[in-house]
Specification:
By secondary structure, this protein is α+β, with helices and mostly antiparallel strands. The chain is built from eight helices and 24 strands. Residues 414-440 are annotated as: Disordered.
């Protein structure tokens, strides 16, 4: 055998061996699914969740669980102003997971009036839930409204998320609804869903909830799979999904929110691109917000999420999206676009999370601000000619970052960066490992570059 042939063969074997070792090291991350423990269905109507319904800001859906067979069910809804009580029939469906089954119910409320308080309870064959309440707003006469955005939650710390949400609501009592950036549930198992409902207790029954899908909600296969359980819980997707893509849009006063399903393969993302372009083209909203799980500009590496950026970011720029809300990378970051003269302008991109887990990130120069080692939530407020993004540290409720997008009557916007006055908190404690030492070095270099003490 010739020497060159031996060299080529040796190199090929080395490459194959290295590839095999790499695949073996990544196999669990790519394809391991957490085991689901056997479970029994709810013996009383429970796990009640209030969401928006179709694209109408006054629509609501109510979902819940009860037993493992479908029985006659409805919602009793009381208008506290008129004292009228109406009954809304619900549709039931049995979902079989890997280790059990349960009946899921959805009732659609489509005759709500603006500026009203309602109370409701869910009913199955004489069994009822507790009474809950919510409010609708008179959007047409107001120019000041807000919602709360929370990135990854993945609450596996015994209900800490619920405490964060309650404290945030105490600070921001004008909050009208919640938007979550995916990975609200740690894994698609019954035991993890139980954690999710515990986190939303007393909140998800009073404030409409929107969430996009995250990678942790999916089962890992060569082609990823999202259980129908997700759509039965966040039931607005039952009517809005395109094929197997969990996409949704909500028009709320003069703002429109566009939700994407970013944890998908290329051909699914292509379908979503067409959907997003259609929605943006016909939108007459003054303020446009895109929500997806995977950041279009990653803070873990510039090559990450290239498919998502290629599909969606040109549309974000072309159709005047003001704000992009993202999660997945378990830190805080904010990036603003810049014009030809270097002036800051929309869109504003943010990455945020409220999870017990913290990731190592890169400190890309395109970003204006970072935060590590803590948890965050954002208040998005529209008031007059301004959309304000205020980011708070969820552990202290202190303001961490703030940007105003100010838009004139022609639609041209300018930015005011109020967050540069608040010092960046880069919390990290190394245990001496190589990855930890490398991350600490990146932090030190970033601090030196920014002049952070």
């Amino acid at each position: 055998m010739k020497k060159k042939t031996i060299i080529r063969l040796s190199i090929t074997l080395i490459v194959i061996a290295a590839l095999a070792l790499w695949i073996n090291s990544r196999w669990s991350a790519w394809f391991h699914n957490e085991a689901e423990l056997p479970y029994a269905p709810q013996s009383e109507p429970g796990r009640v969740l209030l969401t928006f319904g179709d694209e109408n800001e006054l629509s609501r859906n109510i979902s819940w669980q009860y037993d493992s067979i479908v029985v006659p069910s409805h919602v009793e809804l009381v208008d506290t102003l008129s004292k009228d009580t109406i009954q809304i029939d619900a549709q039931g469906e049995i979902f079989q997971s890997r280790s059990g089954k349960a009946a899921y119910y959805v009732a659609k409320l489509r005759t709500l009036q603006p500026d009203r308080y309602y109370t409701y309870r869910v009913c199955n064959e004489g069994k009822t839930s507790s009474w809950y309440s919510f409010r609708t707003y008179n959007q047409s006469t107001r120019n000041d409204y807000s919602f709360m955005y929370v990135g990854d939650v993945q609450d596996s710390i015994n209900g800490k998320a619920n405490q964060f949400f309650r404290e945030a609501l105490q600070r921001h009592p004008d909050t009208e609804f919640f938007v979550f950036g995916g990975d609200l549930t740690e894994r698609p198992t019954e035991q993890r869903w139980e954690e999710t409902y515990r986190g939303l207790d007393s909140i998800g029954q009073q404030y409409p909830v929107i969430t996009v899908t995250g990678n942790h909600e999916y089962l890992k296969y060569i082609i990823r799979k999202l259980e129908r359980r997700f759509s039965l819980v966040f039931s607005y997707y039952l009517d809005s999904m395109v094929g197997e893509n969990q996409v949704y849009t909500l028009k709320y006063n003069d703002m429109q929110i566009f939700c994407l399903d970013s944890n998908r393969e290329f051909f699914y993302l292509w379908t979503q691109k067409k959907w997003l372009e259609e929605q943006l083209k016909k939108s007459n909203a003054r303020w446009k917000i895109v929500v997806l799980h995977h950041p279009l500009y990653s803070i873990k590496g510039s090559m990450n999420n290239l498919f998502q950026r290629t599909m969606f970011n040109p549309l974000v720029e072309e159709y005047g999206v003001d704000l992009v809300l993202q999660g997945h990378e378990h830190a805080y970051a904010r990036m603003t676009a810049h014009g030809e003269n270097g002036e800051a302008q929309a869109p504003v991109y943010t990455v945020s999370h409220c999870s017990p887990k913290n990731y190592y990130i890169e400190f890309d120069k395109r970003f204006d601000k970072f935060g590590t080692g803590s948890r965050y939530y954002q208040q998005i407020r529209v008031h007059g000619d301004t959309l304000t993004m205020n980011a708070y540290d969820a552990t202290t409720n202190d303001l961490y970052d703030a940007v105003d997008i100010i838009k004139d009557k022609t639609g041209k916007s300018r930015l005011e960066d109020r967050g540069k006055e608040t010092p960046e908190a880069l919390i990290f404690h190394s245990n001496g490992g190589k990855k930890e030492e490398a991350f600490q070095k990146r932090i030190d270099e970033y601090k030196q570059r920014k002049g952070i003490q």
